[in-house]
Amino acid sequence: MDLKSSKAAAASPQAKPGTAYRAVAGKPARPGKPAGPGWLQRLLAQVPQLLPSSCALCGAAGRETLCAPCHKRFYTRQHRRCIQCALPMPVTGKELRCGACLKDRPAFDATIVATDYFAPSDQLALALKFGGDLRLAPLLARLIFDATRRNPVPGSDVQLPMPTLLAPVPLGLARLQERGFNQALEIARPLGKLMDIPVHPRLLERKKETEAQSALPVGARVRNVRSAFALPFAAMDQVRGLHVGIVDDVMTTGATLNEVAIVLKRHGARRVTNLVFARTLPV
Fold this sequence. Notes:
Blueprint: H1 3-11, H2 19-24, H3 39-50, H4 68-75, H5 99-103, E1 110-116, H6 121-129, H7 136-148, E2 165-168, H8 173-179, H9 183-195, E3 205-206, H10 218-225, E4 229-230, E5 243-251, H11 255-266, E6 271-279
């Protein structure tokens, strides 16, 4: 190395700490200025795009949790559904509610679902709830959000009002400790962002531990969740006059969601809408 190049190297300013991270985060580093406080968030935001991923249903490689062909095949068909309990209804007919809801109207006012609970959609719900695959929660939230923008009665001008507050169906303490998370809350958080609606994680509480509804016969499910839910004292005045959206992963008989709606209506909620990923079909 000659003397001139040696002096030039010695005179060149050294990069200050943080400038390399700014460059990685996608913004050109400006010498002399340290990275701002948000550099780590910007870096982490790009991580999912850099990691290999695969479709949760077919396993095809890609950046999305659900590939475009699977989305088109399983989540773009519109069915005519009961606006109250979301069970499929015949295409013909003028009634907006099914016979069961007309005969014994539930406490909730409407139900919006992304799909029915059968293969392969049931595997998404099971993988989230029992497999702990939390990456699926934003996907299920997105599919519910898509359902909120569809007409519940194709071909009609029926429009369901959207809630002004979201809350998850709460888990009992023992089950929460066993599972480590509440799948309904994991779905509610990204759903609230998509719908631009605030989420109240602790609007409801479960007063007593109940058996898993899936393990009980239909007739015992209502008794199992009776008086199981309550509003904490601090939340008792937060639902009066409001339209509350209740988020859950699967709706089977609707007994749990009905009990939740009873509690909310008792404390003055004006309207209750269920926002659910999958609806179990009657046997």
